[in-house]
Amino acid sequence: IAGLESLSAERIGQETRKLLMAPDPTFAVAGLRNSGVLQLILPGADDRWLGPLVHCETALGLDPDWLRRLAVMGGEGVEPKLRLSKSEARAYALSRDVGFGALPLAEIAYRHGQNVAQTAHLIRAVMAEQMPAAGALGQIAKAACACFPIKAADLIPQFQGPALGKKLAELEQLWINSEFALEKSELLNHG
User: For the whole prediction, is pTM greater than 0.85?
Assistant: First the structure.
């Protein structure tokens, strides 16, 4: 542990990225925890879910994702401690929000993409101490490719300005809640 304080946050961040991208970093991270280093570099981090997450990634044939792994570990002040870039910080925060939130996986995939929804699925499964449903990956992929069938022009002149935006959002949520099953005509005929 001596000399750790002399390392820059950039260097600690680089090494953490490399470590968490390893095929199975669980033993190395456990070593960091046991030696007290993990709490020095990431106060509040908890690696108890890292092993199950790595197991799930491997079982489903998913590539290692260091931000997903970091998200399941958490910690205080992760962004400045590891000098995450703005895009990494946003991805980390989003992974934590959706992974520990209740938004349906299909909606996450549609709004944020396949990888974010996969991350949410894995984190939720690990926290529930269950293997993630393999069939959910296909549903996630389908939802990530879904294309909302209504355009603003479809609602003009009946709706304009803020009312148009509100109606579009309402119909989009209705479509998402139908698991992307409602057709354009059904949506346009919705009261």
Answer: yes
Residues of the chain with pLDDT under 70: 1-2, 191
Whole-number pLDDT of residue 2: 66
Query: Over the chain, what HEC string results?
Result: CCCHHHCCHHHHHHHHHHHHHCCCCHHHHHHHHHHCHHHHHCCCCCCCCHHHHHHHHHHCCCCCCHHHHHHHHCCCCHHHHHCCCHHHHHHHHHHHHHHCCCCCHHHHHHHHCHHHHHHHHHHHHHHCCCCCCHHHHHHHHHHHCCCCCCCHHHCCCCCCHHHHHHHHHHHHHHHHHCCCCCCHHHHHCCC
Q: How far apart are CA 135 and CA 139, in angstroms?
A: 7
pLDDT at 51: 97
Separation CA 173–CA 161 (nearest Å):
19
Q: How far is CA 32 from the centre of its chain?
A: 25
According to the model, what pLDDT value does residue 190 have?
85
